[in-house]
Amino acid sequence: MSLLELRDLHVTYHTADGPVPAVRGVNLSLDTGDTVGLAGESGCGKSTIAGAVLRLLPKSTEITGQVLLDGDDVYQMKPGRLRAARWTSAAIVFQGALHSLNPVRCIGQQIEEAIQLHAPASGAMTAGATRTRVGDLLDRVGIPATRAERYPHQLSGGQRQRVLIALALACEPKVLIADEPTTALDVMVQAQVLALLEELQREQGLALLFITHDLSVLTHTCERLAVMYAGRIVEEGLSREVFVTPQHPYSRALAAAFPTIGDQSSRMNPQGLAGDPPDPSALPTGCPFHLRCALAVPECTTNDVGLRDAGDGRRAACVHVGAAYV
Amino acid sequence: MTATTDEVLLASPRSIRWARRRASAADAWRRLRRDRLAMAALFVLLGFIVMALIAPLVSDRADFNAINTGDNPTNRPPTGTFILGTDSLGRSVALQVMWGARISLAVGLAATVLMIGIGVVVGLAAGFFGGWIDALLMRITDWFMVIPFLPLAIVLATILERGVGTIVLVIGITSWPSTARLVRSQVLSVRERLYVDRARALGAGRLHIVGRHILPNVTPLILANTTLAVPIAILTETTLSFLGLGDPTQTSWGGLLESAGTTAVKAGYWWQYLPPGIGIVMVVLAFTVIGRALEEVLDPRLRER
């Protein structure tokens, strides 16, 4: 049984302009020690998946399919059970570290909050033990325990992101969802945060779901990779392979967007992807990518192919996959 | 915090929480002390409070009974015996101002507590729960808001039993709508913040979120509003007493102004209307200054880094 399993997950937001299908049939599973990267452009449904796992999406959102945490369907849980499962089964490192922390409470209190919310009612931890734990957690992410009394605005962006990681670890979750944890950080700090996440993942055997638009970050951090486009996974496989020999034209464009250091041709000729991501409320017919695809054939406008086996445990959703690759 | 490690290990969560509160209160006091204007205002306010408290020690309310003041000179300017002179019935203005401070301060504070209390509860509930609860509470708020304040206060003060409690009630139930609206609008903004989502993700319930995340973020606003509300309450009490709707058996600053009336102004008996008037202005100003300073001290974001 997987720690986290998404089965045919569909998420549709109901807006004033009509329904917007943000996630359209995603299957994903994570086991202990797994690191899975979820890549894609803005608006492809990555963060929606993070919210769907802990049932954090607005009430009006329509969700079908299953989200299984440790075999329990999150959407079948009673409110009390759900609250207990949040943060202990899976925790999220949110994007936007400044806004995820309450500005008027010091960081130590905010980490304590998580511990106290989940302390068993009878044998609640003593205040001293809680504080020691907060100190340990801060220490773990490289922030001196004495800083627990600081307020979020007194810390730098990188430190705040570390606080969020410490907060995510507070209840010893088995699954950690990192939702663009390095966005808005400069490259050096980004590298530190990534190294920290990797180290924690290795030491504690966490299952890590890493969400970002930055493919190079994912190949570095994650063992497996899933590329999303328009609410669907269009390619999945081992991250090194997906990055080096992408099967889906979209993954290829994503991978090509990163210049190779030392390669003159890629430096002089950066490869972008023309066009904009499709509007989720008005998806094109057939393959949603065909309008931007260099390899599109007439069949693409009508045939919306699902994931196909591409050999070596890899799968991609493209008509060219399985046939002779062009 | 200065507790030793042993103490910390033995302490219960509650005692730790209180230790932390004490520490942050001490911190707030240290910051407040640096603000000279606020300290001056606090000094003035304390002066009035002391004055109100010692009134029963230096005099007896019976001193104001006409039978005991028959021998006193009337409308006497300030002299040695009567520091602030006497009124048309020969009563000492100084003593009346002292007794009046009791009523004005007590009514002002009690009415403020009532109106802020109602306003905060209604605002929090409406803002946080939204939907039909919000709609219902806001229509009630609108209803209280559109009714002209003074006529409603006068009607209520007339039909209810005369007394200090009635004045408090009248001020409380006519002044809460603006607080409720203010709190609600702030709650609407705070509840959409990412850390509220984060708290939900932590497994927090509604009460926890309101108490630990929403309320602390609305508190500076409530405090600022309170400091504005105290002056309003004191002025309203003055207004009602001036209109003769106060408790006739009690001396209040508004009542003093009323009894001085136009005769004192025309005749130039300044000692009859200036002391209560200045008292009102000083207290109102002191509250405003202290409130502004408190807001700055209590909101970590307004502190200098």
Detailed description of the structure:
Chain A contains 10 helices and 12 strands. Chain A has helices at 46-53, 79-85, 107-118, 127-140, 157-169, 187-204, 215-221, 239-244, 249-256, 264-268, and strands spanning 4-15, 18-30, 35-39, 62-69, 72-73, 90-93, 175-179, 207-212, 224-229, 232-238, 308-309, 315-316. In chain A, strands 6-7-8-3-9-10-12-11 form an 8-stranded mixed β-sheet, sandwiched between helices. In chain A, strands 2-1-4-5 form a 4-stranded antiparallel β-sheet, with helices on one face. Chain B has a single domain, classed as MetI-like fold, CATH 1.10.3720. Chain B is built from 12 helices and no strands. Chain B has helices at 5-10, 13-33, 36-58, 66-69, 93-129, 131-146, 149-159, 164-190, 194-201, 206-242, 253-267, 270-298. In chain B, helix 5 runs parallel beside helix 12 (270-298). The longest helix of chain B is centred in the middle third of the chain and has 37 residues, at 93-129. Classes of the chains: A alpha/beta (326), B mainly alpha (305). Chain A binds chain B through residues 54, 56, 82-88, 91-92, 94, 96, 99-105, 113-114, 116-118, 124, 126-131, 151, 153-154, and chain B through 8-13, 15-17, 193-195, 197-205, 208, 212-213, 216-217, 219, 299-301, 305.
